TrEMBL record, chain A:
Belongs to the binding-protein-dependent transport system permease family. LivHM subfamily. This is Urea ABC transporter permease subunit UrtB. It holds the Pfam family BPD_transp_2. The chain crosses the membrane at residues 12-31, 62-82, 94-112, 141-158, 190-210, 216-233. It is a multi-pass membrane protein. PANTHER family: ABC TRANSPORTER PERMEASE PROTEIN, BRANCHED-CHAIN AMINO ACID TRANSPORT SYSTEM PERMEASE PROTEIN LIVH. The lineage of its organism: Bacteria, Bacillati, Actinomycetota, Actinomycetes, Micromonosporales. Signal peptide: none annotated. Its main location: membrane. It is found in: Cell membrane. Keywords: Amino-acid transport, Cell membrane, Membrane, Transmembrane, Transmembrane helix, Transport.
UniProtKB/TrEMBL annotation, chain B:
Pfam families: BPD_transp_2 (PF02653). This is Urea ABC transporter permease subunit UrtC. CDD domains: TM_PBP1_LivM_like. Keywords: Cell membrane, Membrane, Transmembrane, Transmembrane helix. InterPro entries: ABC_transp_permease, ABC_transptr_urea_perm_UrtC, LivM-like. It is found in: Cell membrane. Residues 354-373 are annotated as: Disordered.
Automatic annotation (TrEMBL), chain C:
Pfam families: ABC_tran, BCA_ABC_TP_C. InterPro entries: AAA+_ATPase (IPR003593), ABC_AA/LPS_Transport (IPR051120), ABC_transporter-like_ATP-bd (IPR003439), ABC_transptr_urea_ATP-bd_UrtD (IPR017781), BCA_ABC_TP_C (IPR032823), P-loop_NTPase (IPR027417). PANTHER family: CONSERVED COMPONENT OF ABC TRANSPORTER FOR NATURAL AMINO ACIDS-RELATED, HIGH-AFFINITY BRANCHED-CHAIN AMINO ACID TRANSPORT ATP-BINDING PROTEIN. Keywords: ATP-binding, Nucleotide-binding, Transport. It comes from the Bacteria. The gene is urtD. Residues 6-242 form the ABC transporter domain. This is Urea ABC transporter ATP-binding protein UrtD. It comes from Paractinoplanes bogorensis. GO terms for molecular function: ATP binding. The lineage of its organism: Bacteria, Bacillati, Actinomycetota, Actinomycetes, Micromonosporales.
């Protein structure tokens, strides 16, 4: 039971980290390796908000939108300055954003104490929720709730707002969307803003569970990407299931073996999964040969 | 350029670049030992090890289009095979010191035992990467996993392996790694003459690897590899299975990384998970990107330059080096995707026709011709 | 094997419910220039995709006694079935010679792949002469004219020693002279091979076809010699007679497909 609940919370955190990645990768074909650093920016935002509003009960609810906007702005700047030139070269984008990630990491290391900063947990997250005799820390429950809210808002936004429709139209056929009068540039920028902002929200959640330091983003990027890969491109549903599955699998592997062996096993799991179900993982293009 | 000129050059060029390898061989094997101090010669040996891995990355990524972001894994296979052998050689009949630190009666782990044998160790350095890369590549390429998926999966493997080693202190030395090797296949490592020999082996292997890719690039396989990179699906309709073509390049690049790792150990004297994890793997890519991923000399020279930066700037200016590295990725990939080695061709192109309004991100140059420059 | 025919029986392709090819049967023999015509969206390309393994299909496509369906693309090619594409796809960065050399490679041992090319294979020289590309040996394929790219693709099939050549709109975008040259080329190479041409240029079809199959909405509408097909009232109705309407409708389909 404990690994299942732990794993669900871990999965929710992964989902938060993967949501934005899935949005930018799935919808724009761009892998942003600095996504983990945007998550880190969100976590540091939570810390900075706490310097202003010292009451942690209040600071975390304030930090969530702040982190969203701050990380989102970083993403926007990245899109406008670099990524917009590289849509034709997805693999190269990956490497460029690796460079961006290195720079952001180092900047964080120099700005903040190298051992990291503490983010106070609000008192209303102190307790436990008893599930079948197991005390489930409220922090974990909160992560799951936060992830659920983000998923709900994101999918509603994509589905019901005109902007969301424009995004989906652009994904479907960029040229046609353009001729239909959609400014794909604006769509790209906004998608990147929202995707990166979601990383910021994930960062706040991460700061409540683990440490907040310059290295934290690097921990999340690969698992988050594996979740996107296993879930299938641009599919919220798949991402949710994959995040939960990977989270629970990691928790169970860690429960049976050690944390590090769990990572290795999770990796093998993804490879095996790719062998079994490659269909959802990449587009098999039957017509064009490019 | 007229067609006749070009065809003439295609015939000449391989021999020019072969001459280039010869010049490099003379510089590394004859000149460097004469003019460099022991310290710098040792450093050059270290850079050569990274360069060997980089040559393989050039083959897989530059020519094959497979962004191998986890070459640290194969570097580790070679390095740890060698390090286990040297550790056992140093320990003699006893169990290596770090293992009995916590438990004086700890037995030698099973998987260490065969590494006592010189033959087994050398075989492992060659066969382990071939088997691992072969299995991984087969599984992924046959299922048509490519692009970013492939890149991140390889990186995930590097992260996983580094974590695994970090957490198994008693079996692998953990984060402290394996070090304090006294002998190298019977030769005392402290002896300057023997250190020179180790350097010469590493530099010699780099030349051998360069010769190998030189032959690869001018061979029909090299052309097929580029064709597969540019139009994988089209290659299928010529009766080839692109998975096999990519597999060969991937396995060869893994083998080279392993060889680089194996020589890294006696030269540097220590191997830790930090040398093989995500950051180390990315560092290997950085050199290749800087030098020119698809060219013959670019990856090796770029890796040497980045290796030099890492070990000099990285220690004298540790706060600044990550910025340099990050900017290197951004600037090179954004403005010069085919690295420094594509500069001459670009200048030539600029001189031939007036600059356009908006210089588009560099189109891939015709690499098959370019290598030989 | 030179005498073997291509026999397609009850070929059927569905795209998530949409029947693109619904039970098409035809055959093609060495010595004839076989045409497959039909308005845009009729399923011609999809037929070729199915025969060459690019698209999953049911039914049967046999070359001699070999069943082609169900095999991976490269295995079908190795059985001697080659194709070209509606949009010329050659390796732009490689020279004409390198393109042809790669195409010729399937007959080489893996070991010889590791050696550099010395000189020009006789089969390549022959294919170059046949397609009139001899002068372009060292030209990068990317800067060839559109027609030359199509010829290069055909030359690649020749050096591949394909027994069955499936050509998807080989003369689209060619000038009148180029069309004539291509037609004559097809007649020459058809002497010893099976040549199946997908086209909707009626004039080209009339001049060079020996037998024709007309597809319409994934079904065979009519089959026979040029004269027979042209005399078929069904064909006149849906394809020739109301060409204008058919084209407009087909355009809509294409726009939708690409959209
Ligand atoms: N991959 C695909 N997915 C869905 N529909 C397809 C696909 N490929 C082709 N079609 C449909 O199948 C029909 C036949 O197409 P095609 O074979 O290209 O026609 P033709 O080559 O005769 O012009 C068209 O209606 C097209 O929209
Ligand atoms: Mg067609």
């Amino acid at each position: 039971m404990a690994p299942l609940l732990n794993g669900s919370a871990q999965g929710a955190l992964l989902l938060l980290a993967a949501l934005g990645l899935s949005l930018t990768f799935g919808q724009m074909g761009v892998i942003n390796m600095a996504h983990g650093e945007f998550l880190m920016i969100g976590a540091f935002s939570a810390y900075l908000v706490q310097q202003v509003i010292s009451a942690s009960d209040l600071s975390i609810p304030v930090a969530l939108p702040v982190a969203f906007v701050v990380a989102g702005l970083f993403g926007l700047v990245l899109e406008v300055t670099i990524i917009r030139w590289m849509y034709r070269r997805p693999l190269d984008t990956l490497l460029v954003t690796v460079g961006v990630g290195l720079i952001l990491q180092q900047a964080a290391l120099q700005i903040f104490p190298s051992q990291g900063v503490p983010v106070e947990k609000p008192s209303w997250l102190d307790g436990q929720l008893t599930v079948l005799g197991y005390g489930w820390p409220l922090r974990q429950v909160f992560t799951i709730l936060l992830a659920s809210v983000c998923v709900a808002v994101l999918s509603a936004w994509l589905k019901y707002t005109s902007f969301g429709r424009r995004i989906r139209a652009t994904v479907h056929n960029r040229d046609l969307a353009e001729t239909a009068g959609i400014s794909t540039r604006t769509v790209d920028r906004l998608t990147f803003f929202v995707g990166s902002g979601l990383a910021g929200v994930a960062g706040v959640a991460a700061s409540l569970i683990g440490g907040t330091n310059s290295q934290m983003g690097a921990q999340y990027i690969i698992p988050a990407f594996l979740v996107v890969a296993a879930g299938g491109i641009g599919q919220l549903k798949g991402t949710i299931i994959a995040a939960w599955a990977v989270g629970v699998a990691l928790a169970f592997f860690a429960y049976w073996t050690t944390g590090s062996l769990a990572q290795v096993l999770a990796f093998i799991l993804v490879i095996v999964f790719l062998q079994l179900r490659p269909q959802g993982l990449f587009t098999v293009r039957t017509r064009s040969l490019v | 350029m007229t067609k006749n000129q070009e065809s003439g050059m295609t015939k000449m060029k391989p021999w020019i670049s072969l001459g280039g390898i010869g010049v490099l061989a003379v510089l590394l094997l004859a000149v460097a030992p004469l003019v460099l101090s022991d310290h710098w010669l040792n450093n050059l040996g270290k850079y050569s090890c990274w360069a060997i891995a980089a040559v393989g990355i050039g083959l897989a990524w530059g020519r094959g289009g497979m962004l191998v972001m986890g070459q640290g894994v194969f570097f580790a296979l070679g390095a740890y095979s060698m390090a286990m052998h040297l550790t056992l050689e140093t320990a003699g009949d006893r169990v290596p010191g770090f293992m009995v630190l916590y438990d004086p009666l700890a037995p030698l782990p099973m998987f260490w035992e065969p590494f006592r044998s010189t033959g087994f160790t050398l075989l492992a350095i060659v066969l382990l990467p071939v088997v691992v890369a072969g299995a991984l590549g087969y599984a992924l390429f046959k299922r048509r996993v490519k692009g970013a998926y492939f890149a991140i999966l390889t990186q995930a493997l590097a992260v996983a392996l580094a974590t695994l080693i970090s957490s198994t202190i008693r079996e692998t030395g953990g984060d402290t790694g394996l070090s304090d090797f006294k002998y190298f296949f019977g030769f005392v490592l402290n002896d300057p003459a023997n250190r020179l020999m180790v350097y010469l082996i590493a530099a010699g292997l780099l030349i051998v690897c360069l010769l190998a890719v030189w032959q690869f690039y001018r061979s029909r396989f090299g052309e097929l590899l580029v064709a597969t990179r540019d139009a994988e699906e089209r290659v299928r309709f010529l009766g080839y299975d692109p998975a096999n073509v990519k597999l060969v390049a991937f396995v060869v690049s893994a083998l080279m990384a392993s060889i680089g790792g194996a020589m890294f150990v006696p030269i540097v004297g220590i191997i830790t998970p930090a040398e093989i994890g995500a950051a180390a793997s990315i560092l290997m890519i950085a050199g290749v990107a800087l030098g020119g991923r698809a060219s013959l000399f670019g990856p090796a020279l770029g890796a040497m330059a980045v290796g030099w930066g890492q070990s000099s700037l990285g220690s004298t200016w540790p706060d600044g080096w990550p910025y340099v590295l990050g900017l290197l990725f951004i600037v090179v990939i954004l403005f010069l995707p085919y690295g420094l080695s594509s500069l001459p061709a670009r200048f030539a192109a600029l001189r031939r026709r007036p600059p356009k309004e908006q210089p588009a991100p560099a189109p891939a140059p015709a690499e098959l011709e370019e290598v030989h420059s | 094997m030179t005498g073997a025919s291509l026999v397609v029986t009850d070929l059927r392709v569905e795209f998530s419910g949409f029947v693109a090819v619904g039970g098409v049967s035809f055959d093609a023999h060495p010595g004839e220039v076989r045409f497959l015509i039909g308005p845009n969206g009729a399923g011609k390309t999809t037929c070729i995709d199915a025969i060459t393994g690019l698209t999953k299909a049911t039914g049967s496509a046999r070359h001699g006694d070999q069943e082609l369906l169900g095999r991976p693309v490269h295995k079908i090619v190795r059985l001697g079935v080659g194709r070209t594409f509606q949009t010329a796809s050659v390796f732009d960065e490689l020279t004409v010679l390198q393109n042809l050399d790669i195409a010729a490679g399937r007959h080489r041992s893996s070991f010889s792949l590791l050696r550099a090319r010395r000189g020009v294979d006789p089969s390549i020289e022959h294919a170059l002469e046949e397609t009139g590309l001899t002068g372009e040996l060292t030209t990068p394929a990317g800067i060839l004219s559109h027609g030359q790219k199509q010829w290069l693709e055909i030359a690649m099939l020749l050096v591949q020693d394909a027994k069955v050549l499936l050509l998807d709109e080989p003369v689209a975008g060619m000038s009148q002279d180029e069309r004539t040259a291509t037609g004559e080329l097809l007649q020459r190479i058809a002497a010893k091979r099976i040549v199946l041409v997908v086209e909707h240029d009626m004039d080209f079809m009339r001049r060079f076809a020996t037998r024709v199959t007309v597809l319409h909405q994934g079904q065979v509408l009519s089959q026979g010699t040029v004269a027979e097909v042209q005399a078929d009232p069904k064909v006149q109705e849906v394809y020739l007679g109301t060409a204008g309407a058919a084209t407009t409708a087909a355009m809509a389909v294409v726009l939708e497909k690409e959209g």
